[in-house]
């Protein structure tokens, strides 16, 4: 961070010109401050199997490493816009889209997370306050050379150290993921979707025609299907 005079605190006696100048001084400091805060954010994964024992884990690790530089710039931008996030946020969730299954038709994405209940009287896993549902529109799909992703802000007030994101249920069960293999979402190998998981997607056509609403309770095939095949912490 550059050294220099520290901005003084605002005073009631400040003129509008003084207040405007102080605001501009603070704004000028924000990029450096945000860069320092972003540098303190570290990648966390609470299970690290030996290399080669979990192909999907290794794939996610590789994607995360490739996105690291771009993600750092994204976090810096978020902290410049809202510096208070550093104090009110438990962490930043990064939802990475599998590059091979990405489609430009995706307009919005919904993610539902069940936050593990803390040990407190009267608190249960079904408590609505323990669920976090976030929707992301296409402007929030960050585009890096390694792929696309969205940043989910996990607030400190509700989040504990763990949460769950349920995947979709297929009949027969979906095969294990393999590097370089085909994606398994819907209809692959004759599999039928029995229960949609905590990720849902809508296309622009869905929005215009008011089809495939989020949480419609239907298991019929959508124009775009989304599924979470791995999450962390888990």
Comma- or semicolon-separated keywords:
four-stranded antiparallel β-sheet, three-stranded antiparallel β-sheet
Write structural notes for this entry.
With 234 residues, this protein is an alpha+beta fold. The protein is elongated. Strands 2, 3, 6 and 9 form a four-stranded antiparallel β-sheet that branches. Helices cover 26% and strands 22% of the residues. It contains four helices and nine strands, in the order αααβββββββββα.
Give a quick summary of the entry:
With 234 residues, the protein is α+β, with helices and mostly antiparallel strands. The chain has four helices and nine strands. The strands form three sheets. Strands 2, 3, 6 and 9 form a four-stranded antiparallel sheet that branches. It has a three-stranded antiparallel sheet with strand order 1-5-4.
**How many strand elements?**
9
Q: What general form does the structure show?
A: elongated
Considering DSSP H and I runs of 4 or more, what fraction of the residues is helical? 25-40%
How many helical elements? 4
Q: Give the rounded overall mean pLDDT.
A: 80
Return Rg in Å.
Answer: 21 Å
Pairing-aware structural class of the strands and helices?
A: alpha+beta
SSE diagram, text form:
Layout: H1 16-39, H2 55-81, H3 85-88, E1 89-96, E2 106-115, E3 131-137, E4 142-144, E5 147-155, E6 163-164, E7 169-171, E8 192-195, E9 199-203, H4 204-209
């Amino acid at each position: 961070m550059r050294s220099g005079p520290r901005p003084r605190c605002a005073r009631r006696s400040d003129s509008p010109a003084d207040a405007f100048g102080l605001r501009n001084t603070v704004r000028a400091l924000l990029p450096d401050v945000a860069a320092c805060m972003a540098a303190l954010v570290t990648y966390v994964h609470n299970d690290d199997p030996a290399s080669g024992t979990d192909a999907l884990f290794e794939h996610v690790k590789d994607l995360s490493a490739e996105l690291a530089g771009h993600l750092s710039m994204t976090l810096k931008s978020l902290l410049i816009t809202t510096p208070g996030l550093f104090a009110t946020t438990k962490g930043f969730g990064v939802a990475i889209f599998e590059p091979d299954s990405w489609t430009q038709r995706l307009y919005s994405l919904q993610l539902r997370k069940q936050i593990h209940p803390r040990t407190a009287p009267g608190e249960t896993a079904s408590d609505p306050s323990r669920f976090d549902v976030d929707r992301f529109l296409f402007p929030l799909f960050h585009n890096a050379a390694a792929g696309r992703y969205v940043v989910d802000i996990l607030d400190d007030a509700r989040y504990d150290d763990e949460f769950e994101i349920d995947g979709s249920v297929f009949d027969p069960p979906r095969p294990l993921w393999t590097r370089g293999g085909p994606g398994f979402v819907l209809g692959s190998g004759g599999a039928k979707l029995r229960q949609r998981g905590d990720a849902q997607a809508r296309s622009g056509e869905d929005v215009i025609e008011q089809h495939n609403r989020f949480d419609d309770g239907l298991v019929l095939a959508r124009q775009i299907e989304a599924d979470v095949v791995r999450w962390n912490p888990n």
